[in-house]
Write a structure and sequence with these properties.
The chain is globular. The protein has 261 residues and is α/β, with parallel strands linked by helices. An eight-stranded parallel β-barrel has the order 1-4-5-6-7-8-9-10, surrounded by six helices. It is built from eleven helices and ten strands. 38% of the residues lie in helices and 17% in strands.
């Protein structure tokens, strides 16, 4: 059955095929961009870390707010609430974001910024690093095993950490993350790829199959402090929250509430 993700990835694969920029030049550019704060270290801090996400809309839920989203302003609200990191959605046709959002946020915060998008190539990772990201999300199910291992190794070369998203730990079984130079975190996405509905039991069911070598993050469907408390008790180091925060009247206050659950 075709999924939301299939359609989105089809678009991004076409985009990547049209990208002929010399990789050597992009890598050279990465080397002169100052490194941002460590994403992995931020998620190792005591307590439940909140990765607060900036997104304008989603294919399944529509617009997040009735007012214009100014990423730098939203980022400031998240920082006031004590967010551990900020996730910026840069996909344009499906989520309404752009790389400029990432640059704007990275320029005004002193915590790690994550580029969240459907990243498939080395050029995609270079763009994240060049535009101020400390880390970038890659989706294990979006590529075959050789491509996944290649991108993990490449990210280490350019000084970019990763949030490696899986929907089932089997997707990365046997991948030598330490040997590939991986730095970052492992994320469990609770959203079903066929229906885009959230399964709130997915993160808890799979936590014991993930090691503690890297921080672990629960993604999608977190609706408030009760969910945060359950996930913290279930062994998660951090949660990534988008819609719930974007729709909040007091975003800083909601981040504080989630941290304290």
């Amino acid at each position: 059955m075709a999924t939301y993700l299939d359609a989105i990835l089809s678009y991004h694969r076409r985009r990547c095929m049209d990208d002929s920029r010399p990789l050597d030049g992009l890598m050279a550019h990465c080397k002169v961009v100052p490194a941002g704060p460590s994403f992995e270290s931020a998620l190792r801090a005591p307590g439940l870390g909140i990765i607060a996400e900036i997104k304008r809309r989603s294919p399944s839920r529509g617009s997040m707010t009735t007012t214009d989203v100014v990423p730098a302003e939203v980022a400031g609200e998240y920082c006031k609430g004590g967010a551990a990191a900020i996730s910026v959605l840069t996909d344009t046709p499906h989520f309404g974001g752009e790389l400029g959002d990432l640059r704007d946020v990275a320029a005004v915060v002193d915590i790690p910024v994550l580029r969240k998008d459907f990243l498939l190539t080395e050029r995609d990772l270079c763009d994240a690093r060049i535009n101020g990201a400390s880390a970038a999300l890659i989706i294990a199910s979006a590529m075959d095993r050789p491509a996944l291992e290649r991108l993990i190794g490449f990210s280490a070369q350019i000084g970019l950490e990763l949030l490696l998203e899986v929907h089932d730990p089997a997707e990365i079984a046997g991948v030598d993350l330490v040997g590939l130079g991986f730095h970052g975190a492992i994320g469990i996405n609770q959203r079903d790829l066929v229906t885009f509905e959230v399964d709130p039991k997915r993160a808890l069911a799979y936590r014991e199959r993930l090691s503690d070598v890297f921080p672990v993050v629960a993604e999608s469907g977190i609706q408030g402090p009760a969910d945060a408390q359950v996930l913290a008790a279930g062994g998660y180091d951090a949660i990534l929250v988008g819609e719930h925060l974007m729709r909040a009247g007091d975003r800083a206050g909601m981040v504080r509430t989630l941290r304290g659950y």
